[in-house]
């Protein structure tokens, strides 16, 4: 029974593997035969995944989006975007868990990372070593700059490239204002020009493996709430550093980073 650390589950065409990840050690707990076929609808897949997820209570005292991570490859990668979104939404509604369908190029990265480190062909060996290649970090730069800088530093130490912000050095003239600018950004032409900077930041979401939302104390600012709508619209993986509070509509997301 996993009491600390996380339970990681890999859904693949060949099998479903359940692991514990505690104190930096990945341990295979169980391996089950596949129950997923391409002919199944997204609703049928969601039902099968939800039923399997109920059984995870055998391995963990708590099964939620803080303690449990789901990763999917194989047949799930071949779903259309619409079907994949319906599947992610269905699993979330039924279980509260985020169903992370790993893109083929990211799967290859995990496999190469794992083989390089251990010689293993187990994708999860790569996941625990470097889960993200590229990320975007969001949060209140006015209120939580030190907290955000710490998360960015730890992400970079893990090998991830932070696409935005490139640096957290704020232009002194904008410190303490409603819209801070970093030293690599142009000054605002007018009040409408804030949109250009906001859009440039959000456009990086598309390139990232995930968006990390820094929300110390659980608080999510108005600017970040605006960005969350865009993240959801493009079906981006969202990970809060702490359990969010004050979010009126719950949506598929995760809380806490596996290694950080």
Return Rg in Å: 19 Å
Distance between the termini: 22 Å
Strand order of the largest sheet: 3-2-1-4-5
The parts where pLDDT drops under 50 for at least 5 residues are none
Structural class from helices and strands?
alpha/beta
Q: Residue-averaged pLDDT, rounded?
A: 91
Global outline = globular
What does this structure look like?
The chain is of the alpha/beta class. The chain contains seven helices and ten strands. The strands form two sheets. A five-stranded mixed β-sheet has the order 3-2-1-4-5. Strands 7-6-8-9-10 form a five-stranded parallel β-sheet, with helices on both faces. A hairpin with a 4-residue loop joins strand 1 and strand 2. Helix 1 runs parallel beside helix 2. The longest helix is centred in the middle third of the chain and has 15 residues. The two termini are 22 Å apart. 33% of the residues are buried. The model has no long low-confidence stretch (mean pLDDT 91).
